[in-house]
Design goal:
Layout: H1 2-19, H2 21-25, H3 28-33, H4 39-47, H5 51-68, H6 105-141, H7 143-157, H8 161-172, H9 181-211, H10 215-222, H11 227-263, H12 275-281, H13 291-318
């Protein structure tokens, strides 16, 4: 009897003992679902719940497609001139009307997205790359090197943007002869990035100073990791969030800066098609033909607003204080 009881208890205890850990650990799907997310996972989850993010992303996606594949939106040559249609108002034959040389404004607005967005993107990349490298080096090493790089950045930061751009562009690209489109675009990108990188440097420097005090950086240093490895492998991934927010907002600002420089006659010029060039061409006809200004300026405002909205959404998602 005792043997049977003990046998039955033993046989009954087996399945119970095997099944006991299941409720505590849960199924593999549950364990995966309950796995804690990192900063970027939390940020994406927060962004996906924001209507402002999706609206801005949709606008930017349309603009990027417009810049890469303008033929999907119009089959009209933006440089074709028909003087008989000079300054015609919007109609069925020309949705946005025609400019002072009889060129279709709708086609020029579509094709103008390419130059404006390319300048904004490349200027942002150059600014972020230069500012991030200098900021990481200054923040990690500190001391006299930090002071030297910080004072050097303040020299450029103290220059008024428009005045500095005028000096750079008029010196390196005097407005004489036939303009070289590629050269002018490269100079505009260079002038914007030269005058803007100290802001990104300050942001990255602050993030680097905070990151180098963390335990994982101290542990890597104690294990003998080189400064380059610590900066690239440990500090850079944890310092990207504030720079990403700045880059998103700055991109829209740089597109507006290109339009400003073109309006002043020192940025992009004909035969390049950009919103800034179109706005510059319309400045003498605003009162008699407002449609020359309305459409390129409208696309410019919507583009800048979309990037600012996207930057605000990314900032709120990455800012722990907003949680």
């Amino acid at each position: 009897m005792t043997d049977r009881s003990s046998a039955s208890l033993t046989s009954g205890a087996g399945p119970d003992l095997q099944e006991a850990p299941a409720p505590a650990g849960g199924s593999p799907a549950q364990a995966k679902a309950e796995k804690p997310r990192g900063l970027w996972g939390d940020a994406w989850r927060d962004l996906s719940r924001r209507p402002m993010f999706w609206i801005a992303a949709a606008i930017i996606l349309v603009l990027v497609v417009m810049a890469i594949f303008p033929q999907l939106f119009t089959s009209i040559d933006p440089t074709h001139k028909d003087l008989s249609r000079m300054r015609e108002e919007p109609s069925a034959e020309g949705w946005f009307g025609f400019d002072t040389q009889g060129r279709d404004i709708y086609a020029r607005t579509i094709y103008g997205a390419r130059a404006s967005i390319v300048v904004g993107v490349l200027a942002t990349l150059a600014t972020v790359l230069l500012g991030s490298v200098v900021g990481l080096i200054a923040g990690y090493f500190g001391g006299w090197l930090d002071n030297l790089l910080s004072r050097f950045g303040e020299i450029f930061l103290g220059l008024p943007f428009v005045l500095g751009a005028i000096v750079i562009l008029t010196t390196l690209n005097p407005a004489t002869g036939v303009p070289n489109g590629t050269k002018i675009m490269a100079l505009v990108i260079m002038s914007i990035s030269i005058l803007s990188w100290p802001i990104c440097m300050r942001i990255m420097r602050s993030a680097a100073i905070t990151a180098k005090q963390q335990d994982y950086v101290k542990a890597a240093r104690a294990l003998g990791a080189s400064p380059a490895r610590i900066i690239v492998r440990h500090m850079l991934p944890n310092c990207l969030a504030p720079v990403l927010v700045y880059a998103t907002i700055a991109l829209g600002g740089f597109i507006g800066a290109e339009a400003t420089l073109s309006f002043l006659g020192i940025g992009l010029r004909d035969p390049i098609v950009s919103w800034g060039v179109m706005i510059a061409d319309s400045r003498d006809y605003i009162t008699i033909a407002p449609h020359l200004l309305l459409f390129p300026a409208g696309f410019l405002v919507v583009t800048v607003l979309a990037f600012v909205m996207l930057g605000d959404a990314v900032r709120d998602a990455l800012d722990p204080k907003q949680k």
